[in-house]
Amino acid sequence: MFAWLRLLLRREVVVNLHDGTGFRGVLYRKAGGLVELRNAERLEPGLPPAQCDGAVVLERSQILFWQVVPS
């Protein structure tokens, strides 16, 4: 696991995807080329945030960049 990714575990992050959407949630774990967010909400331009049920699993190849939410 990348050292920087280990530092982000259990922290609230915003994950921006290549298609312009994003997710805000707690980075729970990384497994291979996947990352799992918990307590996530989907962020789309021009729409209010939508709460997601359960865990959100994203492919790392679809992630454009990460942002750490200040605590």
Describe what this molecule looks like in 3D.
The protein has 71 residues and is mainly beta. The protein has a single domain, classed as SH3 type barrels (Roll). Helices cover 8% and strands 54% of the residues. The chain is globular. The chain starts with a helix and ends with a strand. The mean pLDDT is 90.
Throw out a few tags for this protein:
71 residues, 1 helix, globular, 8% helix
Helix-strand blueprint:
Elements: H1 3-8, E1 12-17, E2 22-31, E3 34-43, E4 50-51, E5 56-59, E6 63-68
Antiparallel strand pairs: 1-2, 1-6, 2-3, 3-4, 3-5
What would CATH call the class? Answer: Mainly Beta
What characteristic shape results from the CA principal axes? globular
Give the tally of structural domains.
1
Q: Could you name the CATH topology?
A: SH3 type barrels
Q: Distance N terminus to C terminus?
A: 24 Å
So, CATH architecture?
Roll
Question: Can you tell me the residue ranges where pLDDT is under 50 for at least 5 consecutive residues?
Answer: none
Task: Report the portion of residues in β strands.
Answer: over 45%
- How does the major sheet shape up? 6 strands, antiparallel
Mean pLDDT: 90
